[in-house]
Design brief:
By secondary structure, the chain is an alpha+beta fold. It is 26% helix and 22% strand. Bound molecules: adenosine monophosphate (AMP) and zinc ion.
Length: 115
């Protein structure tokens, strides 16, 4: 738990959020500022800054699997003909909350390249 981390507080129930999935070490919430009809955030309950932080923790490969499992399953369930998973990482990558999360975007046609 990082004291000043928004998503740690959400994972602990200290700040309200619309939780759409919770299973052990992973939760998924609705994004408060949705960029598509379906916009969910899948994250570990435990704090890691980035996906590289999870990978670097070595023994956490099961957690990487679980994050991708939950994100892709939600995309399959809630998308209608496709979905997009996004992990913004670091300042230049557009990460604004420093607790790793996978965006699940669906419900409209996505464009490429992203902004
Ligand atoms: P990123 O910019 O990739 O770090 O994504 C952070 C996401 O968290 C953004 O899409 C925000 O809209 C979302 N967000 C910020 N605060 C909250 C909150 N309290 N509840 C749910 N989503 C949030
Ligand atoms: Zn955190």
């Amino acid at each position: 738990m990082m004291d000043d981390c928004l998503f740690c507080k959400i994972a602990k129930g200290e700040i309200p959020a619309k939780i759409v999935h919770r299973s052990g070490d992973v939760i998924a919430i609705e994004d408060v500022n949705p960029q598509a009809p379906v916009h969910l955030l899948v994250m570990p309950v435990e704090h890691y800054d980035t996906l590289f932080g999870v990978v670097s923790a070595g023994q956490e490969s099961a957690l990487v699997h679980r994050l991708i499992e939950v994100a892709s399953t939600l995309g399959e369930q809630r998308g209608s003909g496709g979905y997009r998973l996004v992990v913004n990482t670091g300042d230049e990558g557009g990460q604004t909350v420093g607790h790793v999360h996978i965006h699940v975007l669906a419900g409209r046609r996505m464009t490429w390249p992203p902004g």
